[in-house]
């Protein structure tokens, strides 16, 4: 086993490999002398000298581990320059290995600052030029230029309240982007403007070892198909697992947006009114076994916003979070194929006031097929009404709802036989027929699934039973 840590003017490879060999030998010796049952059965007892051997092995192993951790720590932490003038007007915090640029409203070239720092540290080993965090909170700078950071690298980049920042050049991280693990934009900014949006996502695509991207982009209205593509260098983003986007003006999630991000596990999109999720928005190039969480909650999405065949070529199990969008139904043409494609696929409808009419008959008539795949689905009806043939009212028997309140029941507590007259060939509709919301009866004759209401203010009452 070998590890290469060669840097400019310095090579830690030999030291690191010796330490790794030390740890391996420690593990082998400890196993032989202390844990091997054949050895213990043969010896029956351990004399004083053998206790000494075990103690020495433990001490050696701990020392090797301590030195190894120290070397790793040195590798991950940059060293601040002794003179503050080198970075001015930015500041270096030695205790956190952070370089902060802001918050004073001074307009200057960030590129000149980092290239001056690169020249100052040119004779230093590479680990001393690797810092933990870049915090940029300057409210006056408008542009992140090409080759912005010179030879200085960071594990985390945070842009916070950079009110004037409008553009990040495609090759802003050309030389040291491979070190970035997390990239965050938060607070007021002008990034995402249509004329520069492609450059922004090109820059993000160049971060070969990125794990998490979190973007708050008030100006973003749309982002490109194939938003994250393999750059000319050919380095795929094989560790990219989480993408979070808050863009109030965003209206569309485009086709193939995440096509090459094979490790992606969580996508969150927040918009004031997301109007369209295109049919191939969540298609991927290669299959995977891990679950992809797609969080589209709180977007005020119309029920027609998700196109047919969406999620049909994700090539991995999907947990789709659609809560709190005001939906009254679940479109069969869109979501039945998703549920049937993979039994591990799940749709979460928490907080949507479903009207359990014939439009959702396709679900309710197949409870054993879909019960585990559609969760937190709640039907909403007028409080006090809906007395079915069983004589059970669809209300909470223990709660008196106030004026304007409505009753809430879990979809899987409804009697599916009441949906027999719904026409499956007319998208679940059958003229003006509306099924009575009659609850299933337990073996004791008690209705199941009651126990909640939705007040006029939209707050749920007691937790519903499943």
UniProtKB/TrEMBL annotation:
Keywords of the record, alphabetical order, are: Leucine-rich repeat, Membrane, Repeat, Signal, Transmembrane, Transmembrane helix
- Membrane-crossing residue ranges in chain numbering: 53-72
What's a single GO CC term here? Answer: membrane
User: What Gene3D superfamilies does the record tag this protein with?
Assistant: Ribonuclease Inhibitor
Query: What domain of life?
Result: Eukaryota
Q: Which InterPro entries match?
A: LRR_dom_sf, Wnt_signaling_inhibitor
- Could you tell me which SUPFAM superfamilies the record lists for this protein? L domain-like
Q: Which PANTHER family does this chain map to?
A: LP06937P
Write the protein's name: Uncharacterized protein
Can you name the source organism? Medioppia subpectinata
């Amino acid at each position: 086993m070998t590890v290469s840590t060669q840097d400019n003017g310095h090579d830690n490879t030999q030291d690191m490999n010796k330490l790794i060999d030390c740890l391996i030998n420690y593990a082998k010796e400890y196993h032989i002398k202390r844990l091997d049952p054949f050895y213990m059965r043969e010896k029956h007892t351990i004399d004083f000298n053998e206790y000494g051997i075990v103690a020495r092995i433990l001490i050696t192993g701990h020392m090797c581990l301590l030195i190894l951790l120290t070397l790793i720590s040195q590798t991950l932490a940059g060293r601040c320059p002794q003179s503050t003038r080198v970075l001015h007007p930015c500041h270096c915090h030695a205790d956190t290995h952070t370089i902060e640029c802001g918050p004073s409203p001074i307009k200057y070239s960030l590129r000149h600052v980092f290239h001056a720092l690169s020249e100052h540290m040119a004779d230093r080993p590479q680990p001393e030029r690797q810092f933990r965090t870049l915090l940029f909170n300057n409210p006056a700078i408008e542009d992140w230029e090409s080759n912005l950071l010179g030879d200085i690298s960071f594990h985390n980049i945070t842009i916070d309240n950079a009110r004037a920042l409008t553009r990040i050049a495609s090759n802003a991280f050309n030389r040291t982007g491979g070190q970035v693990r997390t990239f965050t934009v938060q607070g007021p900014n002008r990034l995402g403007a249509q004329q520069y949006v492609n450059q922004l996502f090109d820059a993000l695509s160049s971060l070969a070892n990125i794990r998490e991207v979190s973007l708050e982009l008030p100006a973003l209205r749309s982002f490109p198909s194939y938003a994250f593509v393999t750059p000319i260098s050919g380095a795929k983003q094989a560790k990219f697992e989480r993408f979070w986007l808050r863009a109030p003006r965003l209206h569309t999630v485009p086709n193939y947006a995440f096509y090459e991000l094979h490790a992606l596990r969580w996508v969150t999109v927040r918009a004031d009114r997301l109007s369209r999720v295109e049919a191939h928005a969540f298609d991927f190039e290669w299959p995977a076994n891990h679950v992809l969480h797609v969080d589209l909650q709180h977007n005020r999405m119309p029920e027609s916003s998700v196109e047919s065949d969406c999620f049909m070529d994700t090539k991995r199990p999907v947990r789709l979070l659609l809560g709190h969008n005001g939906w009254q139904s679940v479109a069969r043409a869109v979501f039945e194929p998703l549920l049937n494609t993979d039994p591990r696929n799940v749709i979460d409808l928490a907080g949507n006031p479903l009207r359990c009419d014939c439009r959702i008959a396709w679900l309710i008539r197949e409870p054993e097929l879909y019960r585990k795949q559609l969760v937190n689905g709640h039907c909403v009806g007028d409080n006090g009404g809906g007395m079915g043939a069983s004589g059970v009212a669809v209300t909470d028997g223990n709660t008196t709802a106030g004026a304007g309140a409505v009753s809430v029941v879990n979809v899987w507590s409804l009697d599916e036989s009441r949906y027999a007259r719904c026409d499956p060939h007319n998208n679940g509709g059958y003229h003006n027929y509306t099924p009575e919301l009659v609850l299933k009866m337990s073996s004791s004759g008690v209705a199941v699934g009651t126990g909640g209401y939705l007040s006029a203010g939209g707050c749920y009452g007691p937790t519903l039973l499943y």
